[in-house]
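Workshop exercise sheet. Pairs work together: one partner reads the sequence aloud, the other fills in the structure field after running the prediction. Swap roles for the next sheet.
Pair: D.N. / O.F.
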Amino acid sequence: MTGESNGKLTVKEMIPEIKFTKLFINGLFVQSLSGKTFETIDPRTEEVIAEVSEGSKEDVDLAVKAAREAFDNGPWPRFSGAQRRRILMKLADLIDENKEELAALDTIDAGKLFHHGKNRDIPGAAETFRYYAGAADKIHGDTLKMSMDYQAYTLLEPVGVVGHIIPWNFPAQMFAMKVAPSLAAGCTMVVKPAEQTPLSALYYAHLTKLAGIPDGVVNVVNGFGHVAGAALTSHMDVDKVSFTGSTEVGRKVMQAAAMSNLKQVTLELGGKSPIIIFDDAELDRAVHLALIGSLYNKAKICAAGSRVFVQEGIYEEFLKKLEEKATSWVVGDPFDPSSQQGPQIEKKQYDKILSYIEQGKKEGATLLTGGKPFGEGGYYIEPTIFTDVKDDMIIAKDEIFGPVISILKFKTMDEVIRRANATTYGLVAGVITNNLNIANTVSRSIRAGTIWINCYFIFDKDTPFGGYKMSGYGRDMGMDGLAKYLHVKTVATPIYNTPWL
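Structure field:
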């Protein structure tokens, strides 16, 4: 399935043939050395999609060896920026040409809404490759005027072999966010997709070959985090790891990096983000932003605004409108264009979310709406809203990573700033107000990497994204996302008899 459909295909016809299930090492799709496979499951139906090759430490070793050879002796780091730009532009075009198939793979593998994938995620991934393609020939150092009779300049050089570990909530977009800037910088890499969602990463690997990226530059090793991921993060020949996932695993990534070769690490981790709604906010818009900010992508997003603080003057009216909107939220098959929320990724996560809902009830929060599984099959859960939530409740502290919203009442700006910051996380925050002074004060007071004022989920290839505190460090996207794959080298030389210093 490529190109545009005629709009009349059945769901069965929209599901593509699974073409790539092996490991991609040194430009070839190969079986794992052990011959082991694992099942990837369709969360819509709980049925097996395909058997995928399971990478081991030995497979990671082969992939890293290929990436190291491609970096040390291959053409990619030695191409001019213009050469890399042309190939990345071709890759972006290939992504656009295959957007329906890529979107369908993420729908059956991750339960993502097909129409969002086709119209947002996959085109966005293509644009990310174009953005960094445009930067590939603009990687320049500086000339420095020193205080002595010397001059210096800086070079920006690729860090080397990069290990990318990507999560299951945005498989296609995360691949682009990490692979595109590292390719533009001249790095080579090994990608370890989430074991729940390997299919789109393997398809991307196929497209890199078609685009003309040399063998060994991009390698994809499917497998489990505690095996393939651990082998990658502790590998002595990997120069950097970029990881997006849970804070718990992020700690293990840092530890492995420190205990091996002190490789550089960039972490984008969890969040328990606040959306703060003041009395002067336009109410209908505030309700819309709170709902989208909490439930988008079935709340499988680290930046979900799962703590919604509402000022007491509009609290009751806000709840009425929110309940009305939430009960009309459409949960259903992600291939159905009317669906707003698909299934959770897997049984383990599904059960975990339901256990948090039960915990919220036990702690005394009031269940406003939802709280139950949805439908007869698949991992669907109703949008769930709790009111009368206290800051010390588990549902207000833990990252649930599911469609569970906690509503908290506040009185003053100073109070809500203190409460919003009372978390181990610091990824994003939303501020909804028509008062410029409040917006400025709160946005500068919240300890988070991104603040959205009167909007939410405004991601863009131009804007760096990352967190404070236990939400990680380093940034994806923007020029900051390119800089993390570059070393800065200083070169100094004496100057003689110059009239200028």
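Discussion prompt: The mean pLDDT is 95. What would you look at next?
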